[in-house]
Amino acid sequence: MCIKEDGSLSVGTRVVGVSRAENMKWAVVICAMVALSECLVHVPLEKVKTAREVLEEQGLWEQFRLKFPYNPMAKFDHRFAVGDEPMTNDADLAYYGIISIGTPPQSFKVIFDTGSSNLWVPSIYCSSAACNNHDRFNPTRSSTYRQDGSSLSIQYGTGSMTGFLGYDTVTVGGLAVKNQIFGLSQSEAAFMQYMRADGILGLAYPRLSASGATPVFDNMMTEGLVNQDLFSVYLSSNSQQGSVVTFGGVDPNHYYGSITWIPLSNELYWQITVDSVTVNGQVVACDGGCQAIVDTGTSLIVGSQSDINNINARVGASSQNGDFVVNCNSINQMPDVTFHIHGQQFSLPASAYVRQSQYYGCRTGFSAGGDSLWILGDVFIRQYYSVFNRAQNMVGLAKAR
Question: What is the value of pTM for the model shown?
Answer without folding.
Answer: 0.84
